[in-house]
Amino acid sequence: MTEVRLEELLAPGVVADDVPELAPLLKARPLLSAFSTLFHGSEAEVLMRLLVLREIGRETDSPRWGPEQLRQRFAFLDPVKLETVLRRLRGNGLLEIGDDSLYALSDLGRNAVAAIGMLVSFSTEDDLELGFLTAQLAGLQAVGSVTPEALGHLLGKLNDLAWHFEDAIASGSEFRIADARRRLSANTRWIERGTEVMAGLLADPEVPFDLARVAQRIGLAQSRLARVDAAFQRALNKIEAQRVTLGGSGISSSDVAGWLRRLDGPALAELATGALAMAPELTLLAGGHELLDRAELALSDEARRIEADTALPPAEDAPSNRAPEQEDLRLLQHFSQRLARLAEPGSTPAPLASLVAGGGFPAASYRLSLLALLADGGGEGGATPADGPIGEFMRLPLDVLFEAGTVKVGEDEIAAMSTGLVGAKGSLPAAEVVPILDATDSFSDPA
C-alpha cells in the first residue's frame, strides 16, 4: 500500500507551512510517530506491542533487560513474534539497546507508556474523559504549564455533560434520568477537584488573560452542573406523581417497565405472542342517544350544512347607551357628613365606638378602615384624591386617636373594638396603635 504524503491531503496551492494549526503537530512528529508505531496494524498486534512495552517499563529497580530475560518473561508469546515486536519498537525509538546488548525504554517510550497507563487506569471509571482531563490539568498546574488548549478540553467535556443531563431531563424517561443522575454522582469528585484547580489558577494575579477567560467559563459550567441534581429531583418527583400502582400488589408501572427493559428480544417476542393483534380490534361503545345524534348529522342536509358552516357572524355595533358601572359610595358619604360635624368649632371629640357601630359588622368594619386611612394619610397636607367623595373624606380636618385598650360592645355583631377618639384637627395626639374590631361568636359571615 502506497504511503499517502501530507501534501496530497492539502488543497491545491496550499503547503503545510501555510496552515498554523499543523505547526504543533509537525513539531511533535517523533512523539506521533511513536504512537503510530504502537497503534498501527491489527488489534492483536497493538495489544502485543503495548504488553511488551508496559512490562519492560514496569521494572523499576533494574530497568535493563537482556535478551534471555525477555524470552523468559514473555515465554507465553511466540519467540519469532516477540523478536518482531522488539525490532519494531527499537527501530521506531521506543526501545533502546546499549553497548552491553541490554534493552531499556527510551525517554519517548517511557512517556508513551506513562500516558497510556493513565488512560488505562481511568478506563474503569464511569466517565473516563472527565477524570483524565481533570487529572491532566492538575498535573499541568502543579508544574506551571497550563495551556488554553488543556482548559478548552475540560470546558468542552463539562458542556457535553451538561447537554447530556439536560437532554435526559427533557426526555421525561425515569430510567434515563436515573442513569444520568448516577453518572453525575460518579463525576462529582472530579467536578470538585476541577473547582479547586480553577480556584488556584484564578488566585494567581499573574495568570494570562486567555487562561483566566477560559477558567471563568469552566467555573460557570461547573456551577451549572452543580444545580443539575436539583433538576433531576424535580423531574423524578413529577414522574413519581404520575406513577400508577397495579391494584393492591404494590407493583408500580415503573417496576413493570424496569422488568421489561431487562428482557432480551426473544423473551419480549414470546411475551407479546397472543397479546398483540396485527390490526387494532375496536369495540364500539355508544348508547342510543349518541347513535341518533350521529345519524341525524349523516342523514340531515340542514344538520350537515350547519356543522360545515364556519363563517363568522355578521358584525354588530357595540352598544353605546349603557352607562358605566359606579361604585356605591352612599355609606362613605353618610359617614363623611357625620364626621364633618365633629370638625365644627366647639365640638367635642367623640369615642370610636359611637361612630363606628351601626348597621352590622360589615358596615362597622368599613367605617373603622376609613378612620384608619384618615389617621395614616388624611388631612389637608396628605396625598389624597383630588375629586370625589373619597377626596372629600380624606380632606376632613380631623384627627383620629387609637389607644392600646379595647372596649366591649356586645351588640350589633361586634364583641369588642379599640378605644379611641375622633376630634377636630390639632385637638388629639398622634395615633400609634393599630385598630382592632372583633366580631361576636354568633357572627359568621359579614358579607
Can you describe this structure?
Strand 4 and strand 5 (414-424) form a beta hairpin. Mean pLDDT is 78; it is low at 442-447. The chain has three domains: 6-122, Arc Repressor Mutant, subunit A, CATH 1.10.10; 128-235, no CATH class; 330-439, no CATH class. It has 20 helices and six strands. The strands form two sheets. Strands 3, 4, 5 and 6 form a four-stranded antiparallel sheet that branches. It has a two-stranded antiparallel ribbon with strand order 1-2. It has 447 residues and is an alpha+beta fold.
Query: How much β-strand is present in the residues?
Result: 5-15%
The N- and C-terminal alpha carbons lie at a distance of: 97 Å
Give the SSE order as H and E letters.
HHHHHHEEHHHHHHHHHHHEHHHEEE
Radius of gyration: 44 Å
- In CATH terms, the superfamily of the largest domain is Winged helix-like DNA-binding domain superfamily/Winged helix DNA-binding domain
State the helical fraction: 55-70%
Contiguous runs where pLDDT drops below 50 for at least 5 residues: 442-447
CATH class of the largest domain: Mainly Alpha
Instruction: Determine the number of helices (DSSP H or I, runs of at least 4 residues).
Output: 20
